[in-house]
């Protein structure tokens, strides 16, 4: 995802992880993850860091769900609920 120059990036580069950068000036963000995924702690830290920078953060944590669980919407009600919540969030942004 970072492209062909990935090996030239230092481990402290914000392109490697959003936790390494600044959230100053960001618009509202929606963070969704499942508690069964490896990135759950990073997701919580990103939300906290963004909120600390004054960003409006909508945070949804799916109990026992895995990474990218919304793609399984045809099969799981929790995935459909997540997509519904994302849709409501987007609509609220456009309705402002």
Automatic annotation (TrEMBL):
UniProt xrefs under Pfam families: Abhydrolase_3 (PF07859)
Superkingdom of the source species: Eukaryota
Cross-referenced SUPFAM superfamilies: alpha/beta-Hydrolases
Location of the Alpha/beta hydrolase fold-3 domain: 10-68
GO MF terms held by the record: hydrolase activity
InterPro entries (UniProt xref): AB_hydrolase_3 (IPR013094), AB_hydrolase_fold (IPR029058)
Gene3D superfamilies listed in its UniProt record: alpha/beta hydrolase
Protein name: Alpha/beta hydrolase fold-3 domain-containing protein
Protein source organism: Rotaria socialis
């Amino acid at each position: 995802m970072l492209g062909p120059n990935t090996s030239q990036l230092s481990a402290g580069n914000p392109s490697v992880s959003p936790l390494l950068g600044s959230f100053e000036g960001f618009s509202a963000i929606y963070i969704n993850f499942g508690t069964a995924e490896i990135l759950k702690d990073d997701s919580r830290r990103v939300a906290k860091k963004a909120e600390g920078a004054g960003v409006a953060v909508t945070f949804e944590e799916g109990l026992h769900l895995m990474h990218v669980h919304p793609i399984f919407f045809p099969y799981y009600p929790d995935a459909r609920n997540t997509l519904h919540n994302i849709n409501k969030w987007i609509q609220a942004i456009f309705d402002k």
